[in-house]
Every structure is written in structure tokens, then in C-alpha cells.
Amino acid sequence: MSHKTALKIYEYASYLLIIGATVIYFTMKAEGLALTMLVLALAMTMRMLMERQRFKACEEENDQLKDDLRRLTLLLAEEKKKNNNK
Q: What are the φ and ψ backbone dihedral angles of 2, each rounded to 5 degrees?
């Protein structure tokens, strides 16, 4: 599963859980308060998972960019060396 797909899943799941908590709160009033808090805590967990996934995607992209920079630096050094020998 790609990072974008996981982000969308976590985002939509958190929205659905918030809507579900709202429905539980207004339909059950005082009896559903504990259940409402539980569903809201689950929604916050989904949001934290979404941010974790976003962080991991950024870290992977940074690692890839660092590798590209190293490769390009080596190519530049080789080209300069080749030009200096001529």
C-alpha cells in the first residue's frame, strides 16, 4: 500500500469516527458519553497514525534525495577529474 493510500484511509477513517461520535452523543445523551469519548480517542489515534505515515513518507523521500545528491556529486567529481586530465 502506498503512502498516499494509507494517508487517505487514515484521514477518512478519522472523519467517519468523528461523525460517529457526534451521532452517538446526540442519540444516547448521558448514557453514551463514555462510548463517545472512546470513539473520539480512536479518531485521534487515526490522526496520529496519519501523521506518522506522513513523517515516514517524508523520511523516505529525504533518504532518496540524499542518495541522488551523493550520486550526482560523484558524477560531477568524475567529470571534473576527466576535464582536468585533458
A: -80, 165
Three-state SS for 84? helix
Give the pLDDT confidence score for residue 85 in this predicted structure: 82
Q: What kind and span of H or E run contains 81?
A: helix 33-85
For residues 24 and 39, the answer to whether their CB atoms sit within 8 Å is: yes
Would you say residue 84 has pLDDT above 90? no
CA 79 to chain centre: 39
**Dihedral (Cα; 49, 52, 56, 58), 10-degree rounding:** 120
Q: State the burial class of residue 79 (Cβ atoms within 10 Å of its Cβ: 0-12, 13-18, 19+).
A: exposed
Q: Give the C-alpha separation, 49 to 57, whole Å.
A: 12
pLDDT (mean) for 59-70: 96
